[in-house]
Amino acid sequence: MKIKAALPKGMRDFLPKDVVRRQYITQIIREVFELYAYQAIETPVMENLNTLTGKYGEEGDKLLFKVLNSGDYLSKTDDQILQAKDSRKLTAQISEKGLRYDLTVPLARYVVQNQNDLSFPFKRYHIAPVWRADRPQKGRYREFYQCDADVIGSESLYNEVELMQIYAKVFAKLNLEVKIKYNNRKILLGLMQSIGLEGKETEGIAILDKLDKIGLDKVIEEYKALELNDANLSLLRKLLETNDVSLLPTSDMLELGKKELAFLDKFKPENAFFDLSLARGLDYYTGCIFEVASTEYEIGSIGGGGRYDNLTEMFGKSDLTGVGISFGLERIYDVMEALNRFPENLNASSKLLLVHFSEANQNYAFQALNSLRDAGIHAEMYPDLVKFPKQLKYANDKNIPYVAIVGDKEMEQGLFALKNMETGEQQELGLDRLISFLKSH
């Protein structure tokens, strides 16, 4: 039976030209992470489900990809649960593992499990795929890469400043104009308490997080459903329109948040701005929060993060605070492609193709390959004895910039006829001069 070649929704293949562009982005991110003294780590793609659940809120838990237990996973299932078709209870019996949803919760588990082998503050970065059972759309996929940097074990706000500087430096190197937005969860908690949502702060912040998606009027309507009075609704609208926290009545929580914001204001990059409406939906943030958006192309957030004080507590370690950021590789790629910001000299292929007319020509060309590659030149030889136009078409299809032609005359004279595939210019060079030319161009 023939099987239709297809991918699951939200998953993608990448052509060589796509891969080299993605590597260009991640290499710049990696270089900046290491410039700021972050060290690379790796964690498994799968974690125990009890490691993942309860860390992303109710909506996040719904987006976890669960992995069926090995073997006959139904053999130990409670018959009553099976007959009741209760998916939540059934999942708990047939699935103990899941694909990681992000790189932060695995980091918390990693730090607790390896704490005796780490030096604190621990500065790590991790570039790897994550999975979410989300509805696929432009800029949103079920499998995508995150590029994270975190500091564990330091309360200093200099960490937050450095993370904003990392954002600014990376996007400057990528030639992208962005706006780095920041806020503080303490400000948001104080805001929710000031408008009468004490005890419902998480619910109120979740509504605020929808502002970019549904607009201010609909957000106010959702707050009305929480039975806020007209005075508080009016105050909330004014706060979100003016971005002015001084309008809020003072409280200990608010004053602490304002103090932290004042520190960031003193050292922030030029393209970083306070945004009272920035909420970040994940429940584990406790202090400063960040989000990055392109000012040139509408696609949503291309980076985000914040301070989290309680994440390792869930794994039995209560005295470690953390702060981190993440780059959204997929959306950054889409922005750069849309704006044509990838360097023109990026090439996933060879720099030189050796072409030939006969088996003797081919043997001569093949002997030159080792010298070319030893010199660091990405080179290949057309492997089959086919007509000359087909070999040139291969070079054009792969965007190989130079072709070295080997015929009987070139063999006799110890030369290669080097052709520039863009201009058509051709010159005859010996192997040493061929290597020098290619290294200098």
The CATH class name of the largest domain reads Alpha Beta
Number of helical runs? Answer: 18
Residue-averaged pLDDT, rounded?
91
How much of the sequence is in beta strands?
15-25%
CATH superfamily of the largest domain: Bira Bifunctional Protein, Domain 2
CATH topology of the largest domain: BirA Bifunctional Protein, domain 2
* Structural class category: alpha+beta
Q: What is the CA-CA span between the terminal residues?
A: 52 Å
Name the poorly predicted regions: none
How helical, in percent, are the residues?
40-55%
The overall strand count is: 16
CATH architecture of the largest domain: 2-Layer Sandwich
The gross shape turns out to be: elongated
Strand count, sense and barrel status of the largest sheet are: 8 strands, mixed
Rg calc: 28 Å
**Strand arrangement, largest sheet?**
1-5-6-11-10-9-7-8
Domains, number: 2
